[in-house]
Specification:
By secondary structure, the protein is an alpha/beta fold. It contains 12 helices and 21 strands. Strands 4, 14, 15, 16, 17, 18, 19, 20 and 21 form a 9-stranded mixed β-sheet that branches. Strands 5-6-7-8-9-11-12-13 form an 8-stranded parallel β-barrel, surrounded by 6 helices. A 3-stranded antiparallel β-sheet has the order 1-2-3. α8 packs parallel to α9. The chain is globular. It starts with a strand and ends in a 6-residue tail after the last helix.
Amino acid sequence: MHSFHYSQGQLFCENVSLQGLAQKHGTPLYVYSKGTITSHFTRLDAALGELDHLICYAVKANSNLAVLSTIAKLGGGFDIVSAGELYRVIKAGGQAGKCTFAGVGKTRDEIVYALEQGVYCINAESEAELRYINQVAGEIGKKAPVAVRVNPNVDAKTHAKITTGKSENKFGIDFDRIGEVYARIASEMPNLEIRGLQMHIGSQLTSVDPYVEAVKKVTPLVEEMKAKYDLQFFSIGGGIGINYRQSLDSGSADWWQANGELHPLTIEVYASAVVPLLKPLGLRILCEPGRFMVGNAGVLLTQVLYEKRGGAKTFKIVDAGMNDLIRPTLYEGWHQIVPLTQPTTAETEVVDVVGPICETGDYLAQNREIPLVKEGDYIAAMSAGAYGFTMASNYNTRPMPAEILVDGDAAHIVRERQTLDDVLKGEHVV
């Protein structure tokens, strides 16, 4: 479902006016659609229906408790990368027994907490980490369920900062060393239980080809490890891309068909390609989507403060900065910029949409053709539900935005806007 649409001249999220939310709660303001999150989960769940599977939502994409609770109630598991994310999952009503714990630098406290809470699996990314997990598990009298993350050396052909499956990336163990690593776990690490094998080749993939290449390459290895060590699961990671150039023409428009452009990877294409390759394994398949689940479910609302016209450029200065949404600066991420009041003419102008942060890199869009907007108008940065708030900061001592979850006609405050006292909490003058 497409949950953002114009109605009676105003941009809506489901049945709630975004203009009304901006005026009531102030800006910057994150707004999420519960219906979109639910639709994306159920759509993926159905597409994987021929497999024994578990969808483990990647918490790092959007970790708001209300988002996690929504996914937990749908039966989802979680892909976590810190003890803090596990704590969030539990607070939101999720089950530790449906969590996989990833990441290259787990600390002793995190390993202990994960084992005490009973996570489904710890995905190890180096032999040194495996030996340390074995040591910690032995010291606390636990048996640690583990999987090794294989690096298949497959080029996901995505942004350099979000690729993870190449041999030069820090993630995983080289493909040709996996067999010997599993053998050493079995013979030298008595406090570990081999539970599965995991891979993840990158984020924002817009073609099924890298998935097919990686699955075909790793599947024989999975079969070998299953025969030797009785694996329970194979995790194929996440990374399904979304369309950042979505259509707002119709409330029923498909997210994946926008502006007549070649659209990103659809769930149907993804499933039709990988399910036949995975089904013969006879294993539980774990899938770890993050951006796909929440990216197009959220927007960042901001108000135009000033217009600055110069000889080279026109700037629209807004009250949201790179501390609120860093993707354009960090990843050259592209977010559609739309006014909350529907344009009445086709007239546009080329502008930079910039924030108040004292950095040249503080922008939401550069050299972008957008509808005419003036001082005081509200605009939305679309597709900001993933890696928006979770990467936000208090840079320039700016309070974090509020977050709203829309469910049909209802809009719930799921995170209050920070106050300056909140920002300073815990600091002391000496």
